[in-house]
Amino acid sequence: MKRTAMALVWFGLVLLPGKGEGRLPDSGQTTCYDHAGAIISCPPPETPMAQDGSYTIHPMKFTDHGDGTVTDQVTGLMWQKEDDGDKYNWFEVTGTADPIHNPAA
Known about the structure:
This protein has helices spanning about 1-15, 90-95, and strands at about 30-35, 40, 60-65, 70, 80. By secondary structure, it is an alpha+beta fold. The longest helix is centred in the first third of the chain and has 13 residues, at about 1-15.
């Protein structure tokens, strides 16, 4: 039951209405390799030897808002371009009270 719930949460991130439901972002991998690790020409998609670099399904596309944020046009998620330089633990980020990990909360 927990595995199903976690999968639903993950897919909830990419199943945004109006943003191409069910689209996972492309990995951005464009290079293919042989069995020894040497770079080769990527085999055609849908062939038995095709690799991730053979496919461009949902290429990365971002909109820069000019305010320090960008929106991923594939998933609809908005991201901060840079962090503030401070370090936070999980409990501080989520605002969860925990007497061991963030006693000053």
